[in-house]
Every structure is written in C-alpha cells, then in structure tokens.
Amino acid sequence: RICVITLAEAHPLLQTGKTIKNINYQISANCSRLQNKVSGKSKRTCLFVFQMQGAQFLTELAPLCRISSSDGEEYTIYSCIRGRLIEVNENILSNPALLQEKPSTEGYIAVVLPKFEESKSITQGLLTQKEYEEVLLKRRSSAS
Fold first, then answer.
1. Name one GO molecular function term (predicted).
2. Which letter does DSSP use for residue 11 in this model?
3. Which domains does the chain have, with CATH numbers?
4. pLDDT on residue 74
5. For residue 81, what are the contacts with CB-CB under 8 A and spacing of at least 6?
6. Nearest 5 degrees, angle CA 10-CA 11-CA 15?
C-alpha cells in the first residue's frame, strides 16, 4: 500500500551524458521535505491502521524535490499521488549518483502512503511495465 517515488527510466536525468549536481528538498521558504518527521504506531486489527503525526500531506502536484544537473537544467519532481509523506531519501543528498545508478532501489526519492480508501483506485490507474514501454515507444516514434 505504500508508494515509492523514483525517477522513471525515461526521465532526462537518466539519459546518458547527464550528471546530477544538486538535490534540494527545500520546496519554498516555509516548506522543506527534510522537516517531515513522522511519529506514530500501527495497530493490528483486521487491517493495518497507521496512526501518524507530523507527516506532510501531499497532493498529486506537490513538489517533492528539485534536481539540478551539470548542464544547468533543473527538474522538479512531483509526488504524483495524494497521501502522507513517510520519508525522503536523505542518502541521495550526499550521493546523488544513486538516482542514476540505482533509481528503483537505493536511489528512490521518497515514500508516500496514500489514504487507504484511495489506494485501490491509485493502483488500478497504474501502467504495467509492458504498457509503460509501449507508451515510451509511441512517444519516441512521434518525436522522430
């Protein structure tokens, strides 16, 4: 039920020749994703119930971080789902190459917990790996 936010394999930062210079979780003067401090516990009933305090609430369009590359480009990475920010990956701050070398494992950006009642509709709207590859093929062929 948790969502791990990573860079898509087609993201420009994962294309050859790009070097990540900086990752910034400071979204605005008053909002830093690094200040997200989650505390709470889970209880076991017929379902897992999480009682969290301090977790920042995100909408689909909420920025998670900004990533600068050595060629001067800056990319804003958005949550893409509604839910509570459980954690950000502080390891990529000291080792930004993880985003490129291990984007779907150690190079993740954040972990988001959607509302329980919304989690089913979120997963139903996801693409399979094959569907994603077909979208990329269509995108590349239309760009040619």
1. actin filament binding
2. S
3. 3-28+54-143 (2.40.50.100)
4. 95
5. 3, 58, 60, 112, 114, 122
6. 80
